[in-house]
What we know:
The structure holds two protein chains of two kinds. In chain A, about 45% of the residues lie in helices and about 25% in strands. Chain A is an alpha+beta fold.
Amino acid sequence: MTIHFVLCVNKQGQTRLAQYTTWMPVPERAALEGEVVRKCLQRRDNECSFVEHLTYKLVYRRYASLFFIVGVDNDENELAILEFIHAIVETFDKYFDNVCELDLMFNLEKAQFILEEMVANGCILETNKANILAPIELMDKIKK
Amino acid sequence: MSLKLRDLIRNVRACKTAADERAVISRECAAIRTALKEGAGPVRARNVAKMMYMHMLGYPTQFGQMECVTLITSDKYAEKRVGYLGLMVLLDERQEVLTLIENHLKKDLHDSNQYIQSLALTTIANISSDDMSHGVSADVLALLNSSNPYIKKKAALCALRVVRKLKAPDVIDMYLDALSESLLNERNHGVLITTVALVMEALQLKDGEKFLPQYRRLIPTAVRMLKNLVMSSYALEHDVNGVADPFLQVRLLQLLRVLGQGDPRSCDQMNDTLAQVATNTESTKNCGNAILYECVTTIIALDADPGLRVLAVNILGRFLVNRDNNIRYVALNTLTKVVGRDLQAVQRHKNTIVDCLKDVDVSIRRRALELIYTLVNSSNIRLLVPDLITYLGYASTDFKEDLATKICAVVERFAPNRQWHVDTLIRVLTLAGAYVPEAIGNRLLALITQSEPALQCYCVKVLWGVLAKSAPVAAAGTTTLEGSEEEAARYCRKETLLMVTLWVLGEYCDMLCDDAARGPSSVEETAQQPDWQQYKPLPIQVANLLSALLSSLYLTSTVARQHALTALLKLAG
């Protein structure tokens, strides 16, 4: 019933965004990301979005040059996670106005804040875009 | 002058090689370390942001942990935010640094500003350790009862973490008690999703079970809420592609599953709504399918009305022929759970499932294999196993061992007679010999020794046939292993097949060469190897082949050599 990690990786295999529920040491993390990305990059467009890897099931979707990959338990509802990935992308889109890879790269902390509002401790927290973005936009206003 | 995060990212992007990137990063690390020692004030947040970026790239950043702790104590919200984010990214529950921040967390939990409270709550939810959970459980309970939905939903996930970590009865009692009346009176969907998740997890623990009757009283409310979501036709704020909050619907269905399991009376209350969800949800969009999938899983998990079960299996049948691979994967996965309860219903879809074995997608193939393995029984084994064996021929290598072992296990359990059993094992060995574990080879040998002489004769002739085909010239009587070199090499790599053949040749060579030996009389049984009767080599040919194998370069394993020598010995005697 848990989301173990949320990754956003580009086609060259570079991680653009990473959020993990359970901590793992850095070399293990790098190895995991490499494996996961390799598996997802090998898939063709007409194959299904779910891949089994070790104890996780990976649910992934490609948006332009970025792969959004979520690692979940084996008994999680895969289609719902697919919807969740889409909700994440739509939220980024609303905040960054037509989000692209560069937006995520240069605004890493903002992207992390948004993701934090949506998933915590491996559970889905909020999916309504207005509710998620309200505190972020408030913080932006204060900063100015 | 310290770099801004943007500039650091730009520099790293401009690097052409990995060595360049490492140089840039180590320069920046050195600059940050100096800044930390000097205690720079305003650029602290920037430094922590840079450290998080470097951490994501895979570089060690332990020196930055204390910076995060200092940032948390700052008055400015922006700095606090970055401090907490840094904590969550760079630290984990095992670090001792965490104990330092526990007091700060508690102070922030009681702050008047909801955003500061939420920072503390998110941190606790993500990295709280056992000790910290103990310390904050009471505070989290207070916030769980707050009226602010923004705080409440985060408090619910904190409570979930506390429950998962501590699993103590008093903690579970505390949280379940607080929520038992008010769980479904919320209107805010975010709060609903999280509190239901908390309740589900707590109810499934051993100590939470006593709360099940209390929560079962909420089933009518849950059912009504689900009905409202399904029937609402106007766009709400939680609408996704025309379906009202699919995430909440999925959560409610999961809750119904937890509450209804093992209780027939509760199941009755849910039947109508489950049927309604199953029939009214649009299956053209992915979110609709997600809800249908959850609904089907719930129906199967509860021992529901048979009519409902038929409905569920029909939905799965529709999923199976859908063009979208995701849906087919999900259907195959769920059918594995249905097989335990209702084998007949799944048998109807056998052909579609076998077709899935040949799909290009490896995930689907794997699921189909699992499903077929559970489907096989004594009546359909003869039909299904040939398909499995054909598939073995072109499966990918990492799959072959798994598949071969499964086929042998299944054949072991349901083989109609020994003849067929031995035949199938030989075919598996021929097709995937390199990947079959030795235990199976030994099992085959055990079977052969225990069989009647007719069957032994058949076996030895068939195995000789396979060997002869791979090394045809050698079989004709020359002393070297000529002919197709790669054929011979490939044959020798099939370790298990080689062992079995060598042993059998040694034992039953007389039957092999004897004209009078009779095989099994039934013609239908031997359809798999139609030309076995023609093999009648002379003893000298067998001996020649064995000695050729021994001297060949391809026979690398010492065990194989031992077997070949033993066989020659038996031949001589």
